[in-house]
Amino acid sequence: MAEWFYNKNGKDVGPLSNQEFLEKVKSGAISESTLVRKDNAKWVKAVTVGGLFDAVDRSKSKLVCPYCGGAMATTTGTCNQCYREVSVAIKTDNQVSQPVTRRKETVAEKLKASETFSEGYVEENERMRIVAFLYSIGAVMILPILALIFSQGGVGNIMVICLFIFMVLVLALAGFLHRRENKRDQQGY
Asked: How many domains does the chain have?
């Protein structure tokens, strides 16, 4: 177990347990400029002991962030330490609070993340279906039109030629839409 010492008016005070040492910091007997040491380490200013005064600040606070354990002034808002949006802060009743470990993702959160991914996927899937549909219709209709043109021995029928030109335009439009969507995706729109 760690033993703490602090220097008061040139005299060494200690050994103190972790809890006793923290109580001395809370009471103000140990300030940021007080020289302290742990076990047989060198004397350092108390402010250089990582997290010592943060722990005291958290223990004085009645409200803490449920994610990181940082002190909060109000029950809702943004945590000043982890910068997360907090809907409800935790009351500590002036006890030393331990930071809450990263909680596991709930099933609802996993489903929501899955839905968010699926929405983009469904939109992309819908676009691809439209393009594939246009190509299919064009291909299905252009083959009989070509057969009709060649079976009649030429291009004497104006209506057949107009249908052929229309189908070529539909295929060209589908190709253009498909290329435009690909270009947008590559540019990040």
From this structure: 2
